[in-house]
Design goal:
The chain has one helix and 15 strands, in the order βββββββββββαββββ. By secondary structure, it is mostly beta strands. It has a single domain, classed as Porin. The termini are far apart.
Length: 238
């Protein structure tokens, strides 16, 4: 059983389960900026992570965004666990189609790191320590389209990115397979990650829920999480 975490300057990783998982998608930043000077902040996560997101309208059609997060799941009873962190930066175009509908598209790049420790494997493979670690870079584009009003917003998004691993180190063997060699052989991946984001509340503070799915178009059997669900608080200022 393994937990692994990923740090991305646009995105992040965490792994949990009965077999190694080398990628878990982070929450998409969906600010729906519609005017210059608008600021959007979000604190999101679930039981294994905490994430921070921000966006700002620099001009009437250009905005910047930033994301960061920590993956801090508790170790399992057998000592297996992992940790990670990420940062992500982006910038792009937005257009308020009318009073309530917004389209935006961001270029994004993220950097991260992850480590995973599975001491439960050492008994079977005593020549190892049961560890693996790597650095990660993720880059791509993310278009968003949504409806926004004073008390409610809903948006569909798709994060389209290249996910790449480097500095892969360790000696983890799981189920007879050297996981370092496995990750080296699968160090580059092309992902499409659609998501639905809903926010509801008062004018400046809303509850946010996001559900998404990660599709690996390079390797459909890559050891990764696919569906993701996070809950958060969103703050909007003009």
């Amino acid at each position: 059983m393994k937990k692994i975490v990923f740090i991305t300057a646009l995105g992040c990783i965490l792994m949990t389960g009965c077999s190694p998982i080398f990628y878990t998608p982070n929450t998409l930043n969906v600010p729906l900026i519609s005017q210059k000077g608008e600021t959007n902040l979000t604190l999101a996560g679930n039981g294994n992570r905490v994430e921070f997101q921000g966006a700002y309208g620099v001009t009437n059609q250009f905005a910047i965004n930033a994301n960061g997060g920590l993956f801090i799941p508790a170790n399992l009873s057998n000592g297996n666990g992992g940790s990670g962190k990420f940062i992500e930066l982006g910038g792009g175009y937005f257009n308020a189609i009318d009073q309530n509908f917004v389209f935006e598209a961001y270029g994004i790049i993220g950097l991260g790191s992850m480590e995973n420790h599975l001491p439960s494997t050492v008994a079977q493979y005593p020549q190892t320590k049961g560890d693996i670690s790597a650095n990660i870079i993720r880059f791509g584009i993310q278009p968003n389209f949504g409806y926004k009003s004073k008390y409610f917003s809903a948006a569909i998004s798709s994060r389209i990115v290249s996910l790449n691993y480097s500095n892969i180190e360790g000696d983890l063997i799981f189920d007879g397979i050297n996981q370092i060699n496995y990750l080296i052989d699968n160090r580059s991946n092309f992902l499409v990650e659609p998501a639905l984001t809903i926010k509801a509340g008062i004018e400046k503070v809303k509850i946010q829920i996001q559900y998404g799915y990660s599709l690996n178009l390079s390797n459909s059997k890559f050891k990764q999480d696919k569906p993701f669900l996070t809950l958060g608080l969103n703050f909007a200022f003009k």
